[in-house]
Write a structure and sequence with these properties.
Helices cover 31% and strands 23% of the residues. It contains 3 helices and 7 strands, in the order αααβββββββ.
Amino acid sequence: TLMIVFLISSLVLYIISLMLTTELTHTSTMDAQEVETVWTILPAVILILIALPSLRILYMMDEITTPTLTLKTMGHQWYWSYEYTDYENLCFDSYMTPPLELDPGELRLLEVDNRVVLPTEMSIRMLISSEDVLHSWTVPSLGVKTDAIPGRLNQATLMTSRPGIYYGQCSEICGA
């Protein structure tokens, strides 16, 4: 892409320098409909040729065909339900810890009673939906934000690069 942009820029610079240094004596070049058509259509074709491989790469980056772990996430009002679909009967609800039950050093509105445990350096597929109203499943430190919509199954892929505690948070006004 950089090479194409460099060639186009060089051509435009060459044409500008020619126009500034020579006299325009040919009236046929001043009124050329074909040239105007070509220099309007050619950049559009070049932009499409640049965009198509980028769109393919963008789509391929988001698709994981064989994830190590699949985690189904269901949004409810005031809590989330998680289910490890690769294992039988491994599901739980995750409620926010009330402010009066927080230990010193714990973060208000971020601590939960049951945390999700995810492996590091492995591809994880998150299947996200909602039971009641619109929600948004967000973990800012992982760069993940996906809407949970009733009746729709959204997919997000993530990979943790280092072990630690990653906090999710409410990032939108949830509702009908």
